[in-house]
Amino acid sequence: MALPLEDNKNDAASPADDSRIKGNLPPKVKHMLDSVLHELMARPNVFGAAIGERIDITEASIVPKVEESSRSEARVVCEVTVAEDMLNPEGSLHGGCAAFLIDACTTLVFLAAARCAGVSATMNIVYHAPAAPGAKLRIVNSAIAMGARIMSARSEIWDDTAKRLCVTGVHIKMEPSAPKQKQKL
After folding, report:
1. In this structure, what CATH number is given to the domain that contains residue 65?
2. Where is the composition biased (Basic and acidic residues) (predicted)?
3. What residue ranges in 4-135 does DSSP mark as E strands?
4. Which of 41, 164, 77, 175 is closest to 121 using CA atoms?
5. Which of 16, 62, 155, 158 is the most interior residue, by most CB within 10 Å?
6. What is the rounded CA–CA span in Å between residue 101 and residue 55?
7. How far apart are CA 16 and CA 12, in angstroms?
């Protein structure tokens, strides 16, 4: 997929106002992240599109690593409100929906840090507490490591309404190699 790195503010499919995104990344990068998120979710038959189009990026930054201040990491914060189409039969945020949110939002971290989205290799998820319908979720994502082929990020899904941590996850992606040419027999 080609990433929209050019500033296409006049494009009708582009998000309306990237200035709402806080953080120290350049406006062009914030616009690219917002555009990629909304272009991916604008396809009507894509899994999770109705949920994904409601995700709002609120912050995109490069910040010093807490453990090693001489190094930096990408951080992207998103928000979404728990709606009926996100619930499990018990009436709280579905685990599969939480995994989808982690996948979508950590991908933005990879784009912010390395301008590549990669493909998922693994996701490890821990469910801590339920999130009720109407809860405002804050999804805090940060890069762990960005290698030549392997990238990893962590994600925390917070229920801002109840002030508690609901889900944590680690997402590992890789940059796939080019397809090999088949030999003619």
Report:
1. 3.10.129.10
2. 1-10
3. 56-64, 72-81, 119-127
4. 175
5. 155
6. 9
7. 9
Q: How far is CA 30 from CA 15, 67, 98, 107, in A?
A: 11, 26, 23, 14
181 in a domain, yes or no?
A: no
pLDDT tens track for 16-27: 567 889 999 999
Which structural domain, as residue segments, surrounds residue 67?
18-174
d(CA 164, CA 147) in angstroms, rounded, equals: 32
Residues 6+ apart with CB under 8 A from 153: 106, 109, 110, 141, 142, 143, 144, 170, 171
Asked if residue 185 is part of any domain, the answer here is no
Q: How many domains does the chain have?
A: 1
CB 129 within 8 A of CB 119: no
pTM of the predicted structure, to 2 decimals: 0.84
The alpha helices in 72-141, defined as continuous H runs, are 95-114
Where does residue 71 fall: left (phi above 0), alpha (psi -120 to 50 degrees), or beta otherwise? beta
| Residue pair 175/120 in contact by the 8 Å Cβ criterion | no
Number of residues that make up the chain: 185
